[in-house]
Design a protein that fits this description.
alpha/beta; Rossmann fold; seven-stranded mixed β-sheet; six-stranded parallel β-sheet; 23 helices; globular; disordered C terminus
């Protein structure tokens, strides 16, 4: 097999998670991945397709999944066995700061002359700090780096001038840092192809299914995403992907959208070879109600589960159109708090009356499931306010939860306020106090023994300890509330309570160990707790969580993948 020109590497949040004693807490309970955040960014898919389209061969290697699935998998030996023209490492969200940099060091240890390219939101924010490190050669800034990456790969392949590569931060031969002008910011996503069949072909070509799996249990829960835009219209104060962050980091004044026709085709292509749910990323109304309706009309009666996000309350007519297009619809609505004052301070200004009207209209329209999400760690939020949110969940379930379609959730704003967000840039204005500012400080924080010390913030209204304690109490009360309304079984409630109780005990024990002055003794004590920490960390795997849609994967997993592999293998042999 010909070697790839570029190998994309996705690291676990903490590279040595199999050795380090860390209690991660409930930081990933509401996403498909585990606490090591093994799900690689959707950008890997679009970047790989774009390079392949222009003649560069690529390979995706999800190191995090491989390390999680096989405790004997030697990631360093695997990296040493590769020989591409360059390596690409994602640092999209900051929880990968430790793992991404450690993987970059390993690459340089075995391939000292092979360039390491880093990209993503967090990489863009910390681009100068990154290129000051010996293990990083290039940083591509921006939310759309398909074309700049192509320019860079052409320059590396031919020895061309690097100063012409858009959005590139790099070091020249003298070691001087160069920051090329930020000239590439596409106004739309017409150049992007979200082609998942490309991944299937890559699996066949590289004979490597394990490295391409998006997250740990994807074969059991094959959710796939459709990309509606890059950028955002919303002003959530803690989000590094908000309108504020996009404007200040990239100069993006409005999102770049895929056309309704392209997005509709993405959904149809996904459904052509997957019976798993499709998640339409971003509120469909961001690009305007006319485009949303054009998309929905072209997707009438799509088979299988679809997950659609709401960023704000929706009208009865719009919700009826969504359900008409997606008869097996799961609607996702993030309210953050029951308290409109807290919600406003977070950047969302709608009322509870509007929320409740949306819930009523969605259920009346025939929505099969409605997930509503709340958070702890928000501006103006006190412990009492969080408990008020749980009471509000109870009131909503009493009013709307009779048939089991309404599901409330709560999780902490963790582990970090995003760099580039309004709260990170001006914490005092929003009532936050930051413990870490630099990339290196966040990298070190990720090695802390519990999520209480990984948190990079506290608020005027809650300390880090109060955020942790209040989160666990809220989770406990919500679990009992869900059992009362038959949303979970008794055994699930009991398992949740046991996990919370054990987590609280471990938090206390970790705090006591951290008071020990002797470092060696402190480390021995923490290592003695590792087995218990991991039992809590990985007690609930993603496909077993209440959040996963009950769509009966076991009937066909992973037969549809096998059929595709056979089809593409036969096509390759036939020269088609």
């Amino acid at each position: 097999m010909a070697k790839p020109h570029l190998v994309f590497l996705h690291a676990p949040s903490v590279y040595d998670f199999r050795k380090e004693a860390i209690l991660y807490g409930p930081i990933s309970d509401l996403v498909p991945s585990t606490p090591i955040f093994e799900m690689y960014p959707i950008g890997f898919t679009t970047l790989a397709e774009y390079l392949e389209r222009h003649g560069f061969r690529t390979r995706i290697v999800n190191l995090a999944v491989r390390m999680l699935k096989d405790r004997d998998f030697d990631a360093e030996a695997f990296i040493a066995s590769l020989d591409p023209l360059a390596f690409g490492i994602d640092l999209h969200w900051l929880p990968h700061a430790q793992g991404a940099l450690e993987v970059a060091k390993i690459v340089k240890r075995h391939h000292p002359r092979t360039p390491v390219i880093v990209g993503g939101f967090s990489a863009s924010y910390y681009h100068l700090e990154l290129v000051a490190r010996r293990e990083v050669d290039y940083v591509l800034r921006g939310d759309s780096t398909e074309e700049p990456l192509l320019q860079l790969m052409k320059a590396l392949a031919s020895g061309g001038a690097l100063d012409r590569v858009a959005n590139l931060t790099w070091r020249d031969e003298k070691g001087e840092v160069k920051v090329n002008p930020f000239t590439y910011l596409p106004p739309d996503l017409s150049h992007v192809a979200l082609d998942y069949s490309h991944l299937v072909k890559a699996v066949v070509r590289d004979r490597d299914l394990a490295s391409n799996i998006p997250f740990f249990n994807w074969l059991g829960y094959p959710i796939m995403a459709a990309l509606s835009c890059r950028g955002c219209t919303q002003g959530c104060v803690t989000c590094g992907g908000s309108a504020y962050a996009s404007r200040h980091l990239f100069g993006r004044e409005k999102p770049a959208y895929r056309t309704p026709e392209m997005l509709a085709q993405d959904v149809k292509d996904i459904k052509r070879f997957s019976r798993g749910p499709v998640l339409l990323l971003g509120d469909l109304r961001q690009g305007g109600i006319d485009d949303a309706r054009k998309l929905l009309s072209s997707l009438q009666g799509v088979e299988g589960e679809a997950m659609v996000e709401l960023f704000a309350p929706a009208s009865q007519g719009f919700l009826e159109e969504v359900v008409s297009s997606f008869p097996r619809l799961c609607l996702e609505f993030s309210l953050e708090s029951h308290d409109p004052k807290v919600r406003r301070a977070f950047g969302k200004g709608y009322s509870n009356e509007e929320v409740e009207a949306t819930i009523r209209h969605a259920l009346e329209a025939g929505c099969q499931r409605l997930d509503i999400f709340f958070m702890t760690g928000l501006p103006r939020q006190t412990p009492q306010s969080v408990m008020g949110t749980i009471d509000y969940c109870g009131a909503l379930l009493e009013r709307f939860g009779g048939d089991g379609r309404l599901h409330p959730y709560i999780s902490p704003l963790a582990p970090f306020l995003d760099p580039g967000s309004a709260a990170f840039e001006d914490p005092e204005r929003h009532g936050y106090r930051l413990f870490y500012r630099t990339l290196e400080e966040h990298r070190r924080a990720l090695l802390s023994p519990s999520w209480k010390y990984i948190l990079n913030y506290e608020t005027e209204w809650m300390s880090r300890a109060e955020i942790v304690d209040t989160t666990y109490e809220a989770l406990l009360r919500l679990s009992r509330l869900k059992r009362k309304h038959d949303l979970i079984e008794a055994r699930e409630m009991e398992a949740a309570e046991e996990r919370i109780r054990k987590s609280q005990e471990l938090i206390g024990e970790i705090d006591r160990l951290l008071e020990i002055e002797d470092e060696a003794q402190r480390k021995r004590g923490l290592q003695a707790l590792k087995a218990q920490m991991d039992e809590v960390n990985f007690a609930t795997l993603p496909q077993d969580r209440e959040l996963a849609l009950p769509v009966g994967w076991g009937k066909f997993k992973p037969l549809w993948i096998a059929r595709l592999l056979v089809r593409d293998w036969w096509a390759a042999l036939s020269g088609r």
